[in-house]
Amino acid sequence: MLPNLIDQYCEKHTTSPSPLLAELLRETHLKTLAPQMASGHLQGTFLRFISRMIQPSSVLEIGSFTGYATLCLLEGLAPKGMIHTIEVNEELAYLIRKYINLAGAATQVKLHIGDAKKIIPTIEDTYDLVFIDAGKMHYPQYYDLVIDRVNPGGYILADNVLWDGKVVRMEKDRDSEILDHFNKKIHQDPRVENVLLPIRDGLMLARKLE
Ligand SMILES: C[S@@+](CC[C@H](N)C(=O)[O-])C[C@H]1O[C@@H](n2cnc3c(N)ncnc32)[C@H](O)[C@@H]1O
Question: Is residue 35 helix, strand or coil?
């Protein structure tokens, strides 16, 4: 069976997204040039499950895009918890804010507009869950910036780590090389245990040891 047929089959047999998430995805398709960047139904539901299982008090998302994953992560957030989400493209701010407000989460989600590499050091918080999903070239740097801010027993998730399967090729382009380096870096880091899942474009899960 072709991988995209498997993806379609998995989506078909996964709980449907809420009307708000469906509307956000529709508007993402209407108003952005690369709507496939949003986590979407299958991965979004997986993130929602992870968040519900962890019930994090504090979350950091690096790369909000239109806020699809933000709303999924919100569903497991502990009462009085906070999500910090960082997006460099200020033109997306209105869409992200619109859906945060529609979700009634204006006090639970703080949107930071700017370069994550500059913003992460300025946020005074520690995290139970970090979702790395911005520029792939900077994944190792994002990891180094957040690892000391992850609480013991906390999690780091990173999206697109298989890069369309290119990480296993002998001849790698620059992005694949960096993602391959990132995967090895996490796998060899004694501070964490990890599992690399072939969900969508590859999702790395690392748990900081206590
Ligand atoms: C794959 S999308 C994020 C998708 C979103 N997390 C979701 O699952 O729906 C990546 C986003 O990261 C943003 N981005 C890229 N480089 C960034 C940086 N240095 N700082 C903050 N955001 C960045 C891009 O503008 C883009 O909107």
Answer: helix
CATH number, span 3-208: 3.40.50.150
Instruction: State pLDDT tens for residues 171-207.
Output: 989 999 999 999 999 999 999 999 999 988 999 999 9
Q: Please tell me if the CB atom of residue 37 comes closer than 6 angstroms to any atom of ligand 1.
A: yes
Distance 62 CA to ligand 1 centre (A): 6
In this structure, are residues 92 and 49 in contact, taking their beta carbons and an 8 Å threshold? no
The number of beta carbons lying within 10 Å of the beta carbon of residue 175 is: 17
Q: 201: Cβ below 6 Å to ligand 1? A: no
Q: From the CB of residue 102, how many other CB atoms can be counted at a distance below 10 Å?
A: 13
Please tell me the pTM assigned to this model.
Answer: 0.97
Backbone angles phi, psi at 168, to 5 degrees: -95, -5
Which tens digits make up the pLDDT trace of 98-143?
999 999 999 999 999 999 999 999 999 999 999 999 999 999 999 9
Give the burial class of 75: count Cβ atoms within 10 A of its Cβ; 0-12 exposed, 13-18 middle, 19 or more buried.
Answer: middle
Q: Which atom of ligand 1 is nearest to the CA of 44?
A: 8
